[in-house]
Amino acid sequence: MSSSIAILGIGTALPAFRIDQAETAERVADALREDPSSSRWAKKIFKQCAVESRYTCEPNLLESTPDCRYFSHTSLRGVPTTSERMKTYKRESVPLGLDAARKALLDAKADASDITHLITVSCTGQFLPGIDAALAVQLGLAADVNRIMLQFIGCAAGLKAVCLSRHLVLGNPSAKVLIVCVELCTLHMQPGGGRKALFAAALFGDGASACVVGRAGSSHNGIFKLGTDHSVLLPDSSDEMVWEVGDHGFDLYLSPNIPKLIGRFIPAEVERLIDGDDKPELWAIHPGGKGIVDILQDMFGLTDEQSRSSRCVLRNYGNMSSATILFVLNEMRRELKELGTEAANGIALAFGPGLTAELLKFTYLAPVKIPEPLLGGSACV
After folding, report:
1. 213: Cβ–Cβ under 8 A, 6 or more apart, which residues?
2. Neighbours of 155 (CB within 10 A)
3. Dihedrals phi, psi of 303, to nearest 5 degrees
């Protein structure tokens, strides 16, 4: 019975404002012009992180250098406070999540009344009553829908939610779980020329993704059947990825050692997960950064085609924290449909503070449409 649990539908959504990487690099470098070393460093980071565009809910981030409150270098006066950023998060997160959720329900051919569990995921904002309550009401979910919030646990949380939903359906075969991930990462861009501020400014984007998990029926639009999952806390790495609440947004630190640590520890964890099976064909890697995709591609001898979905999402949208893994799976499904692939085994990987690694086996199955009997006729001959 467990083999029929699947991601039945996926939806993604982006805010209205597109950030062009090259143009933004010039504006950030201009904001740092009184510190030539930081200005040069900014251009280098923006160029090397393999991102070409991202999206933001904050139109001020597209303003000219003197008018952008997030780029202030000489003074914190005028820089948005954490309180102001959270007000923006509260205003913008719900419509974005609704958009992704409605697309996922439509893709899964599911009604709001079918949903028994709602898992909401975010690490870039908080308010109460939360996004879970707002989504439940505006989507028309049942008043007694089981609501679960995965809050402030980072980039791995999207895949963690998928794994959790599988276990929920294992325990209750009639369950149907709606997952909604909303991340407004650009609200936490920090002023200044330090490496950690510049790296975050160059890498992260805003987006929402959603999926429906439940028992697969005989007709579907292309699904990912969910296999066994595995979660692990990597040793001696608790200080390598840090996300703390500051006075001017959330302060992020990403160590340059993260790709090396992943390369050191993850091969053994993948072997533990696949348990003697052949190396999977499909690799849904959360693109937490170019270096993470690079090290995993090298360690496992993956082709460029096998890492293409992850690199495509990183290039076009940046790292959208927890929302990203469903963007990768959606892009992978699009490519598989184009190729006419009938079935293929895969593995999904995502990483977060801790360092935490989430791993999941899955199988892609091509769309199946069952013809309906002619109206007024008989299915028997």
Report:
1. 5, 6, 7, 8, 162, 165, 166, 168, 169, 176, 177, 179, 226
2. 31
3. -80, 165
Q: Which two tokens stand for residue 44?
A: 């280098």
- Residue-wise pLDDT for 311-361, tens only, equals 999 999 999 999 999 999 999 999 999 999 999 999 999 999 989 999 999
Hey, how many other C-beta atoms are within 10 angstroms of the C-beta on 338? Answer: 8
Q: Kindly name the residue from 155, 163, 181, 185 that is annotated as catalytic.
A: 155
CATH class label, 223-365: alpha beta
DSSP 260-329: HHHHHHHHHHHHHHHTTPPPPSEEEE--SSHHHHHHHHHHHT--TTTTHHHHHHHHHH-B-GGGHHHHHH
**What are the domain boundaries of the chain?**
223-365
Question: Cα separation of 136 and 118, whole Å?
Answer: 8
Number of Cβ atoms within 10 Å of the Cβ of 230: 18
Rounded to 5°, the CA angle 335-340-342 comes to 105
Distance, CA of 165 to CA of 5 (rounded, Å): 9
- C-alpha to C-alpha distances, 323 to 12, 14, 300, 304, 340, nearest whole angstrom: 9, 11, 25, 23, 27
> Tokens at residue 217, please?
């029926």
The tokens 């991930």 sit on which residue? 181
**What pTM, to 2 d.p., does this model score?**
0.94
**For residues 109-142, b (16+ Cβ closer than 10 Å) or e, as one string?**
ebebebbbbbbbbbbbbbeeebbbebbbeebebe
Three-class SS of residue 217?
A: coil
Query: Which is nearest to 187 in space by CA: 246, 147, 233?
Result: 246
Q: What is the CA radius of gyration of the chain?
A: 21
Concerning whether 68 is annotated as a catalytic residue, the answer is no
Q: How far apart are CA 344 and CA 366, in angstroms?
A: 9
Residue 372 scores a pLDDT above 60: no
Angle between helices 258-274 and 290-300 (to 10 degrees): 50
